[in-house]
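Hello,

Our lab assistant flagged a job as stuck in the queue for most of the afternoon. It eventually completed. Since we weren't sure the result was trustworthy after the delay, we are filing this so someone can double-check. Below is the sequence as submitted and the structure that was eventually returned. Let us know if re-running is recommended.
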Amino acid sequence: MKIDIITVVPGLLDSPFNHSILKRAREKGLLEVNCINLRDYAINKQGQVDDYPFGGGAGMVLMAEPLVNAIEDLQQHTSYNEVIYFTPDGPAFNQKTANRLSLHQNLLLICGHYKGIDQRIRDHFITMELSIGDYVLSGGELAAAVVVDALGRLLPGVLSDETSALFDSFQDNLLAPPVYSRPEVFRGWAVPEVLLSGNHKRIEEWRQEQSVQRTKERRPDLLEGE
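-- returned structure --
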């Protein structure tokens, strides 16, 4: 999978993509992530990519011209399955969306900044809008990092145990069950006996029951569509 990211602060994304699972995915050639500096497409030598909003008001807006130039330049070399813009008023990003996007070959992510991007970009170039939560960030870079991480771990060959992602929270509209590791008893707190039984059928039944119970208690909204 190839993911290109247009941003005014590419340095914010250096760390997330150079450690742990995403680093291994890139080293294996399973995931390619490129951060494109929007200022390379600035309208002047001062690196201007933003301006005041028409109609007045506080804050700045990313201008149409630099973004269009960047998008069209990238599209000359890559045919994108989706051009995604991160915005608080977009549909909520969830596991189902992650699963679907992970099947694509090429994605272009647009990171807004300041008060956002010129609406004409959203009207004519963006094919998907996403929000990672009901709050406002300084820019779309952290949202992009979240989405790339969620997609990267779903790619075949990225995780050492490829079945691991199938049992993550939200895959079946259920939260993951409790997990335990050594020692069997810590400060008098014991691991549930069923997990020590070696009976894989009983263990899976217990995990399913725990997932359902935890979801009912903590996220009943996930079961509403069942």
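-- support follow-up --
The delay was a queue issue, not a problem with the job. The result is valid. The chain has two domains: 2-152, 169-223. The chain has a mean pLDDT of 93.
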